[in-house]
Amino acid sequence: MDLLLTYDVDTTTPEGRRRLRKVAKLCEGHGLRVQKSVFEIVSTDIDLLHLLDDIGKTIAPDTDSIRIYRLPHNGFNDVRTLGTARIQPHREDLVL
Which residues contact 78 (CB under 8 A, 6 or more apart)? Predict the structure, then answer.
C-alpha cells in the first residue's frame, strides 16, 4: 500500500528533540523522506503495524502528532512538485 506519513513532534524540550530524531529514523527505515517531516512509504500491512507500534512507543501523544494517509495503488506515480521539491524515482527504480 502507498502511504504518506507526516509528523509534528514538539521540540521545545531536549526529550522532544530526541523523540523527533527517533521518529525520523523510524520513518527513514520504512520510506523516502520528501520533505522535512513527510515520508512516502510503500508498505505491507505487517510492516505498517510494526511502524505504528514503534512510533506509538516513541511519541508523547499529548504533544506530538502523526498523520498517515493511504493513497490509491501507485499513487506516487502521479505526484506534482513545485519549488525546491525534487521528482523522486519510481519505487521500482529504487535499489534498497
Answer: none
